[in-house]
Amino acid sequence: MHDISQAPLASGRGMIDLRKMEQFVAVAEEQHFHRAAHRLGMSQPPLTVAIKRLEEDLGVVLIERGGNRILGLTAAGHAFLREARETLRQAHYAIRMAQDTAVGHTGLVRLGYVGSALYGRLPDTVRAFRQARPDVRLELREATTATQIVGLLNETLDAAIIIPPLADAEGIELHGFDHDRLCMALPIDHPLSRQERLTLADLADEAFILWPMIEGRGFHLQVIRLCTDAGFAPRIMQEAHGMHAVLSLVAVGAGVSIVPESMAGFRPDRIAYRAIAEPEAAFELSLAVCEPTPATKAFVMIATEPPGSLNIDAT
Known about the structure:
Elements: E1 8-11, E2 14-17, H1 18-30, H2 33-40, H3 44-58, E3 63-66, E4 69-73, H4 75-102, E5 107-113, H5 122-132, E6 136-142, H6 145-153, E7 159-162, E8 173-187, E9 207-210, H7 217-229, E10 235-239, H8 243-251, E11 257-260, E12 271-275, E13 282-289, H9 294-303
Parallel strand pairs: 5-6, 5-7, 9-10
Antiparallel strand pairs: 1-2, 3-4, 7-13, 8-11, 8-12, 8-13
Helix pairs in contact: 1-2, 1-4, 5-9
């Protein structure tokens, strides 16, 4: 435990250190100089002198004395005892908070994530982290890859679950986080949805709903390449920011799309999902950080553990 007793506090006539406060609290609680000195691990004469000097520094009498005996506390003594206890409590708390923050046991982690991450291992990761670091506040913010990278660089995010590759990743650390695949998404009442198996070429004449390239360049180009390999260029009729927005438009019949397969549980009553067999449909999600704090480093350590090794209490 760090010694806080020498930290000085200003009074009307000088500086009062926390050690003097501790000495006064011991005397006030024991009502006896000898017992207080024993409790503090010091001899009685220096303690008596220290309390007298404290009164001189404050310019008030704190202890009523009867010869060598303590009769009680003055009104000023009672007030000082109350506030001294609170000051010492807060000082010890400040030290503990600083030490816990330094090793990642407390603090704040602002975590961004692409929408599809919620349907993979992110929920289990969040649960494992909260169990391992219950005093760290975790804020979750859904955003596109591009928006999250800006957040990391301007320090409004501490960590981000994104879809690589990145156009500019200077200063950003990338850690493997999860795997997913792309699949086709059609309105449930679309004629093609009656077929259990489709190929991308079956969508050649359809109106596509995608997201702006600027919001996720690598992911956007992967979709375009898949369509090109299938023999067509997608006819993009509408763009939406975020995968949930894209799927919501598919659900109301505005068009078809290519989306993460992990999201196939989203509005299954309104959307038909069909697999894409091509190996090129696979993609990865990465955990990105930039100059991580101790709390963020603790999150990275837990988030990058193999999925089966996450220690999660189901209760």
